[in-house]
Amino acid sequence: MTASIDSLIHLTDLHFWQVVGNPLLLLNKRFLGNANVIYRRRHEFHMENSIAYTDHVASLGINNVLIGGDFTSTATPREFQRGKAFVDGLVDKGLQVDLMPGNHDVYTFESLRTGRFSAYFGAFESPEGYPCRKTLPGGTPLLLVPTVCPNYLSSAGNISEEEAEQTRALLDACPAGPVIVAGHYPILHRTQHYSSGKSRQLRHAARLRAALGESGRQILYVAGHVHRFSYTEDSYYPNVHHLTSNAFFLQRPGEAVRGAFSVIHIDAAGFRVEWHEKRDHWEILHPECLPEPSV
Asked: Is the pLDDT of residue 1 over 50?
């Protein structure tokens, strides 16, 4: 087996939550999100695992972590404080963290207007904004692409034509070799592991898909949002593979999995993906060896 040039841990969809009691804070979309927290998320997203899971991630000996957004559930300051404490815990253990917002981090127009995400995570953001290019220690380019926006009711994302063209230009400037591109939303609306309804899809996803595929580069596009593992080759652009990682703290009712994340190993030949799931203990799955289920 070829030695890895780089390895990267992908965590996403943390969804730190707070039950909001102040009615003045519910005069927007947060009213719906707060109901979701009360009846669903607080039972499924176990924040109390934060320290133990941080310790496990740090024990893997992989120094680079990408967090794919949705630190919060309804973008309240208290949720951001919890998300920032989690990131600080990773940094305190010597890990290098790159991150981007998810749609829940700009859940209300007020949270976007006041720049709440940047107020807590500005030190980790690119000064040039998104899209931007980072470089992993072994030289692998990591492109972070903006896909999130607030909505009055839906949870759809968006990528503009300008952002897609900027991504295309960043790809053209990358050195030879594999490239990781990351966004919060998947580009594919359906795979054999998930299916996204129209209100949860990335608007104009075809723009970004074409920018990646037409580059001719060997690309792994990494996303979250759907709370499901999926790993597939693009049916139209075979130079692009698509990975979505499951939610880090999620334990669905009746399921044994208590949390999950992905590890990506990069070498000159391409990418090798591992899915890590917490059951009684942490288990490693290799998606290319698993049968593809139907949604």
From this structure: no
Q: Which DSSP state fits 97?
A: E
Structure tokens at 215: 């580059």
The sign of the torsion formed by the CA atoms of 158, 163, 164, 167 equals negative
Taking the C-alpha atoms of residue 75 and residue 61, their distance in angstroms, rounded to an integer, is: 32
Q: In what order do the strands lie in the sheet containing 230-233?
A: 132-135, 141-144, 179-182, 219-223, 240-244, 230-233
DSSP codes of every residue in 55-93: HHHHHT---EEEE-S--BSS--HHHHHHHHHHHHHHHHT
What integer is the mean pLDDT of 71-90?
94
Neighbours of 146 (CB within 10 A): 21
DSSP string, 228-253: S-EEEE-SS-TTEEEEE---TTB--T
Q: Is the pLDDT of residue 196 over 70?
A: yes
Neighbours of 284 (CB within 10 A): 9
